[in-house]
Write a structure and sequence with these properties.
The structure is a homotetramer. Chain A is of the alpha+beta class. Chain A has helices spanning 5-15, 27-30, 54-65, 75-84, 104-110, 157-182, 192-195, 213-223, 230-246, 248-259, 266-276, 283-286, 290-300; strands at residues 19-21, 37-39, 43-51, 95-103, 117-120, 141-143, 151-154, 204-212, 262-264. The longest helix of chain A has 26 residues, at 157-182.
Chain lengths: 301, 301, 301, 301
């Protein structure tokens, strides 16, 4: 992504205007405000506003648990306790508002997270820009042969070139025709709400997306995961960095208990207990199916 | 939409299998179950399951209001009372599950209604069919000159032909290339999650969509409205017919209080009172802006 | 409500600490932050945090509608347009976090608004204070004879005295016994999660309640309404004053289109049209039931 | 709980009326419909309606994953796969509507689960019955000395008798006074919306509660857990039995992956790997706090 000089000037200008507030301020987050972090070839993520910080999580927890929280003296320990025991409501007390520019096919996955507020650029009202996601060569991969929804080997040489050529040519032609459809020079232009349907889903859209911290972490757990599609994962990765500066204790607990953690079934827990006692547990005597056993084995490697 | 003989046979078969249940049954809805009602050129709506009927709405209201509801003796009167006074929770006690086939650009509007459950066909896992929405000639319209998001005059002759030609040709080429990208004959095919981005948003997708009656009526109020885009309105219209048979009292109240009704501002109500008293109220002395006055005048015509 | 000197000192102290921020700041809201506004005899409402202002609503709307919003030049006009046409998502871009102290029976109504984040004081963990809502004499009213859920005449004299006596005595006895149940002097105290059940619902609880502006306005429309129970309405009224200073354009539009407005059914609209033309419309020829006609007539008075 | 002969007759009567339906029918669930299962001393749970079965979960999953689900041939395996990988949306395709009678302090915990539809008996409209929860002697326990929100030893002898006496006497007096407040014999009765505040939270209320299977399982995981308060856990336990008959595959997967499973942090997983390799891992070299280590050790015992 390259910002126009005008856009960069606008960001610089708004970042130069500080106002006093009585609200809780996250120093780490203030450094990120408004700055557009590039993602993919034309996309970005930037923070437009936020509410709360690590202390706000603890403050809300202490309202709930009153004197009961005194035993956990410090904020970090309390936040780890809350995360470990799935006490989700204190994390809902923080809120973030992002401005995201992203391809439509990524937006379609993203919007499935329903507990959020969204204002998307409307192609019924306005004309979309000529910006399409064209994967970098190292991300053009074949269909996985082991995972129905994943990618396998990277395509190279002629095969990769052919893919790029098709994507570029079809995007260009679709946009040329879109422009031609809505053109109003000497003729009536097609309604924008109709013309947009000619555009492929690698075109970029943008939106404001507002979400509380609990639901954001849930989003990140799923979308920063290795199984998520690369094109949404890079957005999640960028947001992870921002959250780490915004609420450092909460993010560290999230990394330990959610991103790096795993849920074991009753059967798997039982196998772990047997293995620790020195028993030789195999798929056959584990009580698990082959698929479960494979996932379980990978986890313990 | 044309169903394949296999699909029609499957629907006929499932409609021939009746089972006894102790649950509330809506006779009107049973007649619709599983039948696919065509919408647009390849789409459809069909009911897969439902819960509750008009009596279920009243039953829930009577739990809430106890003896307080005795004064409203009959179900129809009670349902009209609930609708009139925005008592929404009893309507949430009914539920419907639809199977919908629809263009992606329509799905993108539809999904903005967040209080619903959705399972959509995944183009990460599976290959999309060659089915694109191509508007019928009478729905190819120019951009409205008065409404930024609306349609104006119908395009005709060469202009209409040009639009159709572009949409058809671009859809065909995009799908040919999609197939070529994922093809695995003698070469590695591109991952499906990438190849799909070459497809324009007039391609069809499908989903199961489950929603409670209160949220469904909210959806219908917005999407069966004259200002909604034609391509989603036809789905809403088809669903309206089904709801009218499912919960006839609730639907009639909805038509009177929501679809056919209107909200007047404090200022507008005041104007109405003055006009009834015979006063000559004009935009200038109304307290309304020109835009508001125009809408108000249209309402009273 | 009387704050302890310690509480007041804490509020004064936190209000004296201003920090620079790059975020949008609402001057009107900064004046309210942390201050506890008394409600009922021991309750209060105070703002703990907020996100956004009138400009944030417009900013989000302009992302959606792009150049389409240029025709509505100013923020006030745009906000009125959004409110009038039920464009709710831009209002969701503002958020508020309140600290509320309120009787349990009020909390039970309040919590029915589901789209909000809540952390409530837990009587499983902690011991409740001896604070009960005892209505002021002017709010002790008889059951309405016309409205199953409303109040009628104010009780006076011996009747009012009797009510106050019962409420005070039962609250005092229940709390004495609660203390005695959990007491741990020389005996085992009953678990707090059990002892709390002895307390009547006029005891005070407190919570942090976070909600977006759209859902807050929906709450206010229902709870600041004349039909809402007095004891929740006074909280809504106090919040209305805060919102009026926070987002003055949005609040003014809300007052005109929601609080002061009304929804007319198709039948009612038709009657209005006939009345404006000079026709003598009566309940008999209106197409409305007696109840509807009564409400309609009151509206036009 | 004892049903009146009239109530039992009504249930018998409705259970004798079977109607044909084309919808999916769960034989296991049909056996439960309408029957009131006693919980606590006056409460009950009963199913009023349901939508879907195990096959409906698979049907929705197969829409999403298309041909991708063919590799998981049978419904049971597919449901286990979905549960293991947190694919929650197919479980949202089933819905249940319960009629529950429960003490107010239990209702206050229950209502915190926001993704559900509720119609509660209103004490603004109607008069509450004289029914209070009085714990059985074996559930009267002291405050836990290790857990701020839990119960410790069972109280016995005089201490238990004292507790029972207080709860019974205060409930009786509160109800007598409630009746006296609303009484209308020869005097004006206090408005019901005010009189109700004199009642303690062990009084029973009732509601219709409708929820999808995914959110129901989340509720059961938290409320059928050993750390949940006994008085809500017994409701969850009773619902578990019903769900096991309704969707046997989903319930078995839930028991294995959720109820009997556990989430390990990154640190804990690392310790498990070290322990399986024969290393002697102690709290000191584990990287965990004392609290975390204690929970971890209990899990592996």
């Amino acid at each position: 992504m390259t910002l126009t000089p005008e856009q960069q000037a606008e960001i610089d200008q708004i970042r130069s205007q500080s106002n006093p507030t009585l609200r809780a301020v996250s120093e780490g987050m203030e450094r990120h405000l408004y700055t557009a972090y590039p993602v993919l070839d034309h996309g970005f993520v930037r923070v437009i506003d936020y509410m709360g910080d690590d202390a706000a999580i603890c403050q809300a927890a202490r309202v709930s648990y009153g004197k009961g929280t005194k035993s956990v003296q410090n904020d970090e320990g309390l936040i780890r306790y809350l995360m470990r025991h799935w006490h989700s409501t204190p994390f809902e007390m923080c809120e973030i508002k992002l401005h995201v520019k992203l391809p439509v096919f990524v937006a379609r996955q993203w919007i499935r997270h329903r507990t959020a507020n969204v204002n998307e650029y409307s192609a019924r009202y306005s004309i979309l820009d000529r910006e399409f996601y064209i994967p970098a060569p190292e991300h053009i991969a074949a269909q996985s042969v082991v995972n129905n929804q994943g990618r396998g080997d990277i395509l190279t040489g002629d095969e990769a070139a052919r893919v790029l050529e098709i994507l570029k040519a079809d995007s260009a032609r679709a946009y040329d025709n879109y422009q031609s459809l809505i053109s109003q020079d000497g003729q009536q232009g097609l309604a924008r709400e109709l013309a947009r349907m000619n555009l492929p889903t690698n075109i970029y859209t943008q939106w404001y997306w507002k979400v509380d911290l609990h639901n954001l972490l849930h989003f990140l757990r799923l979308r920063a995961d290795a199984h998520a599609q690369y094109e949404i994962r890079v957005y999640a990765d960028e947001i992870c960095k921002i959250v780490a500066d915004w609420v450092p204790f909460a993010y560290a607990a999230f990394e330990d208990y959610r991103m790096g953690g795993a849920t074991l079934s009753k059967t798997a827990l039982d196998c772990v207990r047997r293995m620790i006692k020195g028993e030789n547990v195999t798929q056959e005597n584990s009580g698990m199916s082959k698929g479960e056993w494979r996932e379980f084995s990978q986890l313990l490697d």
